[in-house]
Amino acid sequence: MNTFRHSQKNHTPAKPPQADRRKQRGAALIVSLILLLIMTVIGISASMNSTMQSKMAGSMADRNMALQAAEHAMRIAEGKLQGWIKTQNAILTYDAAKAGQFISSGTDRVYLFKADAATQPWDLNTVKWDNADSMDAGAITADGHTLPVDKNPRYMIAVYPNNANAQTKALEGVEQGALPELVGKRYTITATGWGAQANTRSTIQVEYYSPF
Length: 212
What we know:
By secondary structure, the chain is an alpha+beta fold.
């Protein structure tokens, strides 16, 4: 008699396909969330960088406006000083007894340089830039448009004692012995301008020499 033996093997039941699909969807969701997070971080960073660049550009534009205002005041001051020199205006007469003071003549005013002081008001930043120590250069208008500055630029003219050979000393890089001995007067013009913001200010200064 033939005996048939059936071998039995243990078979692990196959997972239903729905479980694999759920795992795949879960992994895809995690990857999507990570990508979304990365894109959000990149977007926020780009937005912050754009805002910072915009602020920097605005600040630079305001500083340029303040510099333009100061240069405008400088041109007005140079014209004023040349007129005073031409007419030998008494306000330019140096009075040692009033050294270190602002003196006035009508609406005009100048500062008398204090020779024995190591620093002057513009170095000490003690100039108030008001009618007591400086002059209003007026609004800056071109082609019917007025520069939108916080306030009009101002300038201050300083008068030095009569200085022998002032022009010779003013010329740098030239052999001194080849220059004639000239008697001249020395002045300093300090001009300041503001931008559209009150805290944006630019100050420039030049030395001015005259043989008279």
